Structures are given as C-alpha cells and as structure tokens.
Task: inverse folding
C-alpha cells in the first residue's frame, strides 16, 4: 500500500513537472503568454484588460497613485498577505521623478546560441523587426512601464541608450525599470519626464544577453512581477502592486492623507491634544472629521469624487 502511494506521488510529481515545463516552454518560444495563461495568473482582476489579457488598471487610478508613498503601498500589500513586492538598491536617472504605470515585463538571460537562434527565428516569422531588445519597445502603449530582468548584468548589460530611451518615452510617456544597466546617461537625462531605475550605468554595448519572453512573470530582486502590475517607483525603491489591489492602495492612501491633514490642522488650532489624535478617535472626533471634509471639499488634495465616496461611508 505504501509502495503504491509512493509510486502515485512520483507519478503526480512527474505530471506536474511536465506540465510546468510545457507551460514555461510555451511562454518562452511564443515570446508572450496566451490570453488564457494571462487570465489564469491574474484571476482576481475583474476590470478592463488589453487584447492579450494583461490587466488594464484605469488611467485615473494611475494618476492618483502618483501621490501614494512607498510606505503606504507597502502597508496595504502586507495587510493583504503580499510580502514580496518591494525592491531597493537602484541607481535612478533622477531622484525626483517618480515612475507610475502598468508593467510590461521582459525576461532576458545569458546568451545560449541554440535557444537564441530559435527565438530570433520565431520573432522574424512573427514579423518582429530589429534587435531583440527593441521588440518590447514596439509593444509599449501609453501608461506602460518597461520592466526587465537581465540578471543584474552591468558591463555589457546595457538594455537601452538614448535612442531607445526616446522611443520608449514617445510610446509610453513613461520610464523603465531594469535589473540590468543602461548607457548614455547624459542623453537620457535630456528626455523631459523620463526616468530609469537601473542597477548601474556603463558605456558598454549589450552583448551575450538573449531575450526569452515578453509579458510573462519575472523576478526583480526579491519581488515577483506579473504583466499589468502597477509600478510605483520612488526614491526609496519600487513597489510592484498587483492590479487587483491598485485601487485599494490608492483609496487607503487618500484616506490616510486626509486624516493626517485634519489631525495636523486641529492640533495647530489646539482643539485636540496629541493623546487624543494618536489614539483611536472618539465618535466626536470622527464626526468633526466628516464635517471638516464637507466644509473643505474644494481645498483638499484628493479628488472631490473620492471625498464624496468617503463621506457616503460615514453615518454622521
């Protein structure tokens, strides 16, 4: 009986491994996941999607996300059980230009000629043009962030220079995140609104690197990144926010921002003590907060529509 059980476990393990291998092989050789695979990996996203199935978080949420701090996003994700969505240790082109957008993910690996030749042949038959590191750029749309894992390669790991950087910004109006390097820092810094979070800067050209897949799951340091995740890149580092949690992150941040503003205002006025504000608010303070929101709705740093939604949830 034990022998049969053990044999069954071995058989199931082989089936699982074979299925996983074929799944990854299909991603690699096809260059992108199928729509069915994309839906399978992002089942909690119920909103709009791109044609290929990649989650399409609304532009309004992206715009509001720019005001979210890394700590606020981190806190929401941790509370939801997502502990591996932050990565630090970057050398950004600009410290003061945040990147917010939908991830278009790319996996690069050390070059292996037999695989690389197959990838290039498949790309050519699919109508792709130019070097493989330009293929993802051709797929970018406005609001995308080109997120690539190239195994942290610095020398000869420069995925873009200023020419490709200009093309990226023209298509996406956004920046890049590379677990690799870039070249032409001076030229890239002249692209107004563009930023690059990279592992280093180097004058070399890209060599001995092959593209394996586009819009498949990738690892960026300690973070797992899926196509359509929201990239929130600021000075401290980068949060990769699952699409289905993006709006929750934004709304939570806005509530925190409003409550902090109210608390600071009332403390300056001397209406409440620090002890009252730093503890759980009483019903009296909560009612005062709701009244304050109504009377200052035109002056608040949060869209009026969101303030009205917040007020609807109050019973005062």
Result:
């Amino acid at each position: 009986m034990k022998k049969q059980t053990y044999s069954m476990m071995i058989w199931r393990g082989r089936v699982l491994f074979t299925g996983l291998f074929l799944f990854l092989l299909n991603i690699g050789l096809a260059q992108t996941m199928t729509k069915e695979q994309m839906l399978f990996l992002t089942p909690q996203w119920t909103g709009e999607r791109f044609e290929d199935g990649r989650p399409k978080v609304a532009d309004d949420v992206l715009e509001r996300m720019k005001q979210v701090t890394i700590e606020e996003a981190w806190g929401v994700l941790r509370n939801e059980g997502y502990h591996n969505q932050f990565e630090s240790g970057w050398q950004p082109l600009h410290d003061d230009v945040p990147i917010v957008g939908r991830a278009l993910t790319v996996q690069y690996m050390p070059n292996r000629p037999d695989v690389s030749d197959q990838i290039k042949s498949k790309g050519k038959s699919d109508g792709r043009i130019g070097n493989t590191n330009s293929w993802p750029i051709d797929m970018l749309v406005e609001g995308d962030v080109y997120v690539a894992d190239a195994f942290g390669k610095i020398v000869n790991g420069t995925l873009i220079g200023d020419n490709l950087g200009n093309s990226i910004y023209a298509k996406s109006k956004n920046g890049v995140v590379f677990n690799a390097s870039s070249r032409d820092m001076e030229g890239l810094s002249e692209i107004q609104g563009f930023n690059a979070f990279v592992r280093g800067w180097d004058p070399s050209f890209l060599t001995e690197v092959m593209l394996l897949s586009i819009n498949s799951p990738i690892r960026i340091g300690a973070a797992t990144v899926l196509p359509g995740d929201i990239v929130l890149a600021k000075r401290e580092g980068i949060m990769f926010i699952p699409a289905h949690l993006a709006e929750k992150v934004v709304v939570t941040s806005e509530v925190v921002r409003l409550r902090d503003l109210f608390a600071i205002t009332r403390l300056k006025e001397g209406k409440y003590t620090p002890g009252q504000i730093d503890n759980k608010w009483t019903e009296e303070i909560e009612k005062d907060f709701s009244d304050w929101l109504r009377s200052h709705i035109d002056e608040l740093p949060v869209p009026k529509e969101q303030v009205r939604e917040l007020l609807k949830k109050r019973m005062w």
